[in-house]
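Notes continue from the previous slide.

Worked example: a multi-chain complex. Inputs as given:
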Amino acid sequence: MSGKFTEIWVYLAATPLLGLTVTLLAYQGAYWIYAKAKMNPLANPVAIAVAALVALLWFTDTPYPVYFEGAQFVHFLLGTATVALAVPLYANLDTLKKNLVPLGGALLAGSIVAAVSAVGIAWALGASRETLLSLAPKSVTAPIAMGVAEKIGGLPSLTAVLVVCTGILGAVLARGTLNVLRIQDHAVRGFAVGVAAHGIGTARAFQVSERMGAFAGLAMGLNGLLTAFLFPLLLRLWPG
Amino acid sequence: MLGAFTLLLVFQLVGEVLVHLTRLPVPGPVVGMLLLFVSLVARGAVPQWLRDTCQGLLSHLSLLFVPAGVGVLLHFQRLGAEWLPIAVALVASTVITIGVTALVMRALQK
């Protein structure tokens, strides 16, 4: 890097303006690529934006807390967005009422299996306790997952990354898995993707059909609620 | 829009306060979400101004976890040491979860 550029960078990095601006620029650039790739889940905009920003911070030797000074204004809205999830959840209330038993049963099974299988496999392969706790809420929508990770002693920023990876995996692997099991009903397909792969899976489901998307969105909201209330209680039973 | 945003913040704040007072091990915003949901059920409809703001906020939901995601650079060492258990757990657990959820739902529909 030339001296002049370094000087300006150091000056700008000291204000929140830079962290905030590069976050918005990176995301919009990543979203442009995602749209160009016809919304292929492998071109996930969060993954691309995060990779670009990590590279930027690394090349400019900027510490994460300096970047976060600015990015915190975006980060803060996670909590508010979580509250806003009540609206799409309410919009699906009729669907929920009409299918209470199959949806409730599938939700409970899926939610528990998601956490237990991930934690169990990682534990068997020797992952550390902090990693296991960060992994547990990985199928839940990011704002809730991060809140849960914080409550149970995981690392919220690691959870954020694991949540995005899970979403991408779910969006990519759902079709094959469901085809092997010969599940054709779009309601069932959507709900399964929503429980396993939250918003990224839901976005994928909406590309297939409106019905599949609606069930995925409902699954995402319900799984977030269930996980937030159930996991911290379950963990109190886990000897530490 | 300002009114809706204020309303969301008020629910978030009430959620945080309740969690703090009751020492529930639940994130405050989730309690806020539940309270808003219950209010909507009691009211029987979502006001248009609230729906518009929430849609706007949620359409950019993925932007909101970028700052935390960048925090991955604090965990490079951990990821380098534990990439195998993490990768296997994520792939296997995702496939298993999709399968189990779908099979249980289909079984209960009949």
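Summary box: The radius of gyration of chain A is 19 Å. DSSP finds twelve helices and no strands in chain A.
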